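The freezer alarm interrupted the setup, so I double-checked each line after restarting. Inputs confirmed:
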Amino acid sequence: MFELGLQAIYSGVLTGGYYALVALGLALVFGTMRVINLAHGELVLLAAYVAYSAEVHLAISPIAAIPLSLVVVSLVAVLVYVLLSHITRDRELNSLILTYGLGIVLTNLMLLIWSADIRSTTATWFQEGAVLGDTLYSSRSEVIFFLVSLVLVAGLWFWLTRSWHGRAVRAVSSNRDAAMLMGVNPRTTEVLSFLVAGLLATFAGIALYTGKTIDPPLGHALTIKAFIITVLAGMGSIPGVLLGAMLIGITEALTISFVSTSLQDLAGMVLFLAVLLLRPQGLFGFGTRRG
Amino acid sequence: MQQRTIITIGFVVLFYGAVPAAFGSTDYVISSIVAALTIAGTAVAWALLGNLGGMVSFGHAAFFGVGAYVSALLTMNAGWPVFAAIIAGGAGASIASVAIMPALRLRGPYFALAVLAYAGIFRILATEMEGITRGAAGLLSIPRLPTILGFDLGTNIGSYYVILTIVLAAMAAYAWIRRSEIGFALLAMHETEDATRILGVPSTRLKAMMLVLSAFITGIVGAFNAHHISFLDPDYAFSGVWTVLPIVAAIFGGFRTVSGPFIGALAIYLLDQFVFKSLLPTGHQIILGAALGTMILLSPDGLVPLLGRGLGKKRHAAT
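Predicted 3D structure, all chains:
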């Protein structure tokens, strides 16, 4: 019982690293533009599918496909940004509906290109077991991308707090007009945040492809998961996203171990609704979300 | 006002008289129109919440599915008459909407996404609660609509009259609320919520009312559909289609008008059914997604105001 619980927590933490990669891009774009990109999960899935195509047609490993995925996902991310920037009225809600529509387009585009079949990598090296201290089991993919996610979270945090461009992102996020007066070009900054979100989505997509199976409806589910984590974290908190993602990962893993696999998603959603009810500013957020 | 009355009467005559007379004999066409009206009913409910409540919902599939299951189970297990069960289905959806009320204190995008996450819960519940819902196997041979005064409502043409009446009643309720004091307060709230609160408008309570009403209408439409199709399973009852199509329809037709969602639903569903599906058997939703995006970029108020502008009629965006 104790060992089972320990194993579940270990798996949950590793999954949390992957979830953080999925959620960070959404949180970043929300931070800069106050726009929730409902096509974000589809970007993650797109990266995974590009890696699949590269593996089948070019016979390269998913890791080597990262640059290719990055180019494709970044182009689509910038396209999303260009379309979003044409919205003038009711920006909050209209951008939500627009990205929702773009998500539908991307999902069906992937369905048309790659069909509804479930795909997975042929590089079995990633799925082989990695044992920690003789008792805790996981796949190599999980461990690798957990570490990658820690590096990227740290890098993102460092970029946002220490670099000029990162501070520009935060400046635009807190006051667009004032940032403009300080010589920050908000458009460049927003494109930059979309590109960084694309980069994070690419790594999330490769983590997905090496560790799990993919099919077109998955993108939508990933968007929901990313949003749940972002709310749990409290909008705009980068370390909070990592913690929120791990919390969801652990909750799901414990549900699988002790209750039932099919209730996995339910557990995350109940946690989400509970947080919404009891602490609407998020677990690690400050201030209120009203007004 | 005079002109509006004439248009309304013409509209009712057209849909109660001319449409069945023209298509009543072709089952395929009339059943497609019934399906389009099912989308229209949900689209009206969605637009009511969106326009009056100022809330975009990505979770109307939940209300649709709950209404369908409640009504189907009441007729099958408790022997309720179909029409009473359909009303109960609406009530069931309203009760389900109470669970999402904590999200009402969230504004704009937060609410929309909270509902999106919440909608997923019901599909899982319907699949897992096998003792009641029979799980993924689904419910077969749900009682059809009854025969009243020798007129069989279970036929396609009978169902057409029933769903048409439901949708028109929903539109009438929507129009009435919009012109009432509550509607005025709600529309003012859409402009600036804090100012209306200062003037003593109980904004959260009004929004909650709109949510419950929207869920009620959607539940009734879902319940109707269950008895019309006579089959339910979790994937069908809570399908994303019940969220996507009404949104596309309402945006396309114009969700700030009463007739917009209705016209949008007929146009979008029939186009999807007769044109898009034959062009693209799989993935035809890509056209719907593109239409949604294009509409938001070019004319966020939809087709109806666009046409109105073309005819030289001036309308305020939110009245």
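Quick read of the result. Chain A is about 75% helix and 5% strand.
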